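If you are new to this repository, start here. Below is one unmodified record pulled from the training split, so you can see the exact layout before writing a loader.
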Amino acid sequence: QVQLVESGGGSVQAGGSLRLSCAASKYTFDNYCIAWFRQSPAKEREEVGNLAKNGIRFVADSFKGRFTISKDNAKNILYLQMNNLKPEDTAMYYCAARARYCSGLADAFDYWGQGTQVTVSS
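And here is the target side for that same chain:
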């Protein structure tokens, strides 16, 4: 069974940084695409980036330059480093897994974590 556990959310001021964590098993990382999504009120869930089974990392264009994805292989944790945060980054951030190739569509993912809230104040 795939389990994804997010952590690291919180409240920061604009311009600050946060690092989110997504913990999963080694099996999950070896066999699933793992992605970060976010959702704010009245908006659809959007992909921030992902880590494919082959280790290739992707960050959506709208987040490049501020957000990066990395993985700690020893701890089996996927990180989302968020810098220069803006109030519009306020959202619930989710980790998701998909057994096949990576997709930017939330509906394509089968497993979701509980989410971690990020709030950025101006």
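Two things worth knowing about this chain: DSSP finds one helix and eleven strands in the chain. The first helix runs from residue 26 to 31.
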